[in-house]
Amino acid sequence: MSGSDWSSKKGATSEVYARDDFDPELQTSDILAPRGAAPTISKEQPGSWIPSTPGGSTLAGEANEEKAITNLDHGWRPWKVVIGCFCLILPTYGLLSSIGLFQTEWEQNQLRGYSKSKISWIISIFGFFDCFFAAPCGILYDQFGPRILLFVGSTIYVASFVGLAFSTTYSQFMACFVVAGISAAAPTTVGFTVVSQWFKVREGLATGCVTVGSAIGGIFFSLVFQELFNRYEWRTGVLILAGIIMAFMTVGNLLVERNESQQTGAEADSDWDFSAFREMSKSPKFWLICVSMFAYEMVLFSQWGSIPSYAVSTNFGDKQFYLMMTYNL
Q1: pTM of the complete model
Q2: CB 206 within 8 A of CB 195
Q3: What range does the domain containing 161 cover?
């Protein structure tokens, strides 16, 4: 058979060898693909080939992401953040856990001419604003991170107790606790939020270590109030209290940081999406949890304020500090 006959019968084979669009960066499957098929060229360095999943993500990228998630629970930085969050919760919620001791001090000294119900408004407004302004502080946290929010909130919080030391009237006490309640929302929101960005497997343990700062703070400040109110005059005692609060806040500001590798919801999508809330609101379990938490918090907050007053009214005023300490256990 002549060469020309062989070429005419094997035209398909000769066409393969005649391709002039060969690219060394093409993968093996692309080289063998029919003419006109779209080539798949790696976006990495020229000549490299990275296996990919059907969804388009590289296996190497998934491995790195999995490694990053696994490393969330390891190392000293996550537990450093836990210590910092603990130091933020202790002088805020911990102080709130023994807030009723302020009321008995005022009833017996500075605000002797006022009724118990009117004095109780001062400490009640502190707890209300601390919880109410948590939502705005959460939005600010998502947008700006914890640094600025913590610094501003902690500074104002400490300053409110310095002002409290120089207060002598009902309106002054009320103003100081209004400012303290609003500013306390910043460190408490950061303390309960940022720790979840550093843990995946041990998130429950880490959050529990932060939350226990409220109980330990209640015990700690019950003993502190006993010493301050019995040994010092009002101004000196509260200034010492402000110094203690400032020390804890300083440690918290230095240790707490956001995990930049964990993208927040606000960074992922700037639009507010309430679809999840709409779905949850249809569930009876969701409302049952809401009612249960409301009842729990109402009992908890009311006892923080009423136990010291009840102890004084039943001639157990010298035991009120130990009663509050026991209640926080």
Answers
A1: 0.71
A2: yes
A3: 79-261
